[in-house]
Amino acid sequence: MKYQPLSINQKKVLEAILAKAQDNGFSDISIREIQSITGLKSLRGVTLQLEALEKSGLICRKRGESGIEVNIALLQSKEMVSIPLMTSAIPAGY
What is the rounded end-to-end Cα distance, in angstroms, of the chain? Predict the structure, then answer.
């Protein structure tokens, strides 16, 4: 798995979702609300950002239901920190 930081639009969408989900970890924000908050031009653009966030494991959307579940680790921390993991060997001397 390759480390990739969030894009600017993904950060905007995630912040909008987190603002609604601070109480219970579940956000009932609609795609239109996200569009108006973030300033994205189309609903498809919002959907693409949501799909990318879901693929990275930050949110979970259930088909046929409204609402977005947020990864609990994001709610525990007030500040999101990205830490890349290095999984290769490093040469070391004595």
Answer: 31
Q: What is the mean pLDDT of residues 42-58?
A: 91
16: its two tokens: 């909008």
- pTM of the entire predicted model: 0.70
pLDDT of residue 5: 83
Distances (CA, A) of 5 to 9, 24, 72: 12, 26, 19
User: Concatenated DSSP letters for 2-53?
Assistant: ---PPPHHHHHHHHHHHHHHTTTSEE---HHHHHHHHT-S-HHHHHHHHHHH
- What's the per-residue H, E or C state across 42-58? CHHHHHHHHHHHHHCCC
| Integer Cα distance of 68 and 27 in angstroms | 5
Query: 61 φ, ψ to 5°?
Result: -115, 135
